[in-house]
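Pipeline run #58 for the internal structure catalog. This entry was flagged by the ingest filter as a single-chain record with no existing model, so it goes straight to prediction. Upstream metadata was stripped on purpose; only the residue string is passed forward. Reviewer on rotation: M.T. Logging verbosity set to normal.
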Amino acid sequence: MYWYKRYLLLISSFILLLGIASCKRDSNAAADSKAFFDIKGYFEADSARLTKGNPLITKTVTHNQIPETQKVHIPNWGTELSLFIGSDINKPAWRNSYDVNSTDNITIYAAKDPALKTQRVVIKNENGKLKWIMIVNHTKNILYENTEKLSYFPDSLYLIQKKQRVRLLGTDTYQISGLFR
């Protein structure tokens, strides 16, 4: 009877080890999981580069057509470009959620489902280098509706245009532009 328990323990341990080994993440699967342009990765890398370079920016914030302009050094570009980073369309569940149209220099990602936050991404490349990116986000529910147009020209300009309509409070418009010096 003793050998039976020992044999059962050995088989159970072997099955457990096989189960753990089969749960190992495939490094190639992670690399291949990006079906579209890696917006999040691009802006995280550019945020780190800009934070390190600390360029002087002429930043204008406009709320309901009232502008305020200052020359500033942005201490945290990850926060400054967070709307761009948050517009990532490379979620595994969204793999078939965007139509892709490309020419030599321009790629357009258009959402198939109007319920998706990021509705359109337009990217212009020249000689393998990103020249500009434009993102349109839209969110709507029973309480509010948000529309965002995000434009980014590396080392030149970023522009965030937002229109927010809250059911009981009315409509607000915002625009943030950063001109690189």
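catalog note: The longest strand covers residues 129-140.
catalog note: The two ends are 82 Å apart (CA to CA).
status: ready for reviewer M.T.
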